[in-house]
Amino acid sequence: MLNGMRWIGLIVATMIGAGYASGREIWEFFGHESGLAIVLFAVMFTLSCFVILKLSYELKTENYLPVLQSIVGKKFANVYDWGILLYLFTMLFVMISGSGATVQMFELPYYIGVILIIVLLLVVIPYGMDGILSINRFLLPLLIVGLSVVLFTFVIKEQVPIIYHYLEQSNWASSIPFTSLNVVPLIAVIGAVGKEIKSEKEIYVASIGSGIILGVISYLYNISLIHVSDQLFFYEIPLFAILNGYPVQMFFLMSLLLWFAIYTTAITSLFGLIARVKDFFKFNKAMVGIILIIAALPFTLVGFSNLISYLYPLYGLINLYVLAMILLFPIIKRANHTKI
């Protein structure tokens, strides 16, 4: 059970990046008439976690490539391997933009947030990932707990209806691209822990537990955003519409935690990119990092909400094949065994 809880933490931390925590990702895919969609997402996410963890456990993996190859085949694995590279680059400039949007809530110019995160990205490059990962392990649970408390408090305080128009569920299909958007980073992270999984019981605990937790948080977040939907036009980051009216201390704390989530997502993406492309350059890591940040800067001018509005649904569509192969994997595997 304890080891299973460990994997739940890893899965939830992978899922609750800055896009999710800000509420922009939830609102982009769900919104009105999405109760069934969130239930379907929780089910598909649970099944996806189970398949990926089971494969990792059986293959005793230390990196995600064997899992990716088992799911989509070697040819498609090479394609999606480069797709992960593109995804990391996207996350870099989306997070830089998110930093600009966050500081705007304190009535500071957008470019201040952009400059701040770039400077801190450049500072951390020479020191490697260990320091920032240690900070992330401490701050991310705080963000998850803080977000849960804010949502529960908001629902109770504002008397938000738990069930919105239960007979109207026209948006159920959005569960598919939302799940597929998140399966590739899920493969990249939990596809690399196979050697550390001790038994299949951990897999059941991790899969079911993470599906329930993310399903509940997503549902609470969605109904809270529906309740303030008339205000969302004025906010780049929807979470701030929910926090409007909260004590200034809570607003400041959640803003700080959200900014750290943005920063750690950006630095993780940057280090992943540097590790992958450094062989193509004859420079040191710091110079490669500078080149990547400069390349990402023009995209940040589009704006945080616009970037998520266009790019996240696109990645959801691109990853549909991976999601389909994950969900069908147990059936295909059984069919192959039957033939043998």
What does this molecule look like?
This protein has one domain (2-327): Amino acid/polyamine transporter I (Up-down Bundle), CATH 1.20.1740.10. It is built from 15 helices and no strands. It has helices spanning 2-15, 18-21, 24-29, 35-59, 65-72, 74-104, 110-124, 130-157, 175-190, 200-227, 239-243, 248-277, 285-300, 304-318, 320-339. The model has no long low-confidence stretch (mean pLDDT 84). Keywords: Membrane, Transmembrane, Transmembrane helix. InterPro entries: YkvI-like. The chain crosses the membrane at residues 33-55, 76-96, 108-126, 138-156, 176-194, 203-228, 248-274, 286-308, 314-332.
Mean pLDDT: 84
How many DSSP helices?
Answer: 15
**What is the CATH level 1 assignment?**
Mainly Alpha
Reported for the largest beta sheet, the result is:
none
What shape does the CA trace take? globular
Tally of strands: 0
| CATH topology title | Amino acid/polyamine transporter I
Q: Helical amount among residues, as a percent range? A: over 70%
User: What is the H-and-E element order?
Assistant: HHHHHHHHHHHHHHH
Uncertain stretches: none
Distance between the termini: 36 Å
Keywords: Membrane, Transmembrane, Transmembrane helix
Transmembrane segments: 33-55, 76-96, 108-126, 138-156, 176-194, 203-228, 248-274, 286-308, 314-332
InterPro entries: YkvI-like
Which terms would index this structure?
Amino acid/polyamine transporter I; mainly alpha; about 350 residues; 15 helices
How are the SSEs ordered, and which strands pair?
Blueprint: H1 2-15, H2 18-21, H3 24-29, H4 35-59, H5 65-72, H6 74-104, H7 110-124, H8 130-157, H9 175-190, H10 200-227, H11 239-243, H12 248-277, H13 285-300, H14 304-318, H15 320-339
Helix pairs in contact: 1-9, 1-10, 4-9, 4-10, 4-15, 5-6, 6-7, 6-12, 6-13, 6-14, 7-12, 8-10, 8-12, 9-14, 9-15, 12-13
